[in-house]
Amino acid sequence: MTGEQREEATLQDHHAAFAEIGFLLDIFTTTIDNIMGGATAPVGRIAGRAMANKLPFRLENPSIDEAVGTLAERMQAGFGFALSGDGADRQLAFERCVLRDICRQRGQQPGGPMCRLFHAYFDGIVNELICRPVKSEISESGEQCLVKIATK
Hints:
This protein is an alpha+beta fold. It has five helices and four strands. A four-stranded antiparallel sheet has the order 1-2-4-3.
């Protein structure tokens, strides 16, 4: 350490940082969407699988329930989601979502390029954790987002 004192971040600093991150995520996802012509799922899945390999844990007998439950716990600072249903009728309900907050701030409807890329990324993480292909589809977006999720 250099012995320098650091100033405490203010609420205004946090709001400014949130706005900047939202702007950068918007530009990033819009650019990926434009380059890929809307077919961003492979980009998200590859990134998600790479992320899963960097997670500091491994699941012993992985199931989608265990993977999603573990991710919900790990991602609780920005997201609140839970898995429901069984068989082919599995669904993720996102009650709280930092990306929804970014969409609101940027004047966008949830469910667009940023959300689609995130869900492909999430699929990639779960895919790697349970060693099975995972595919999700946003079925409802708004104050609560519902995502159909299935394993192959």
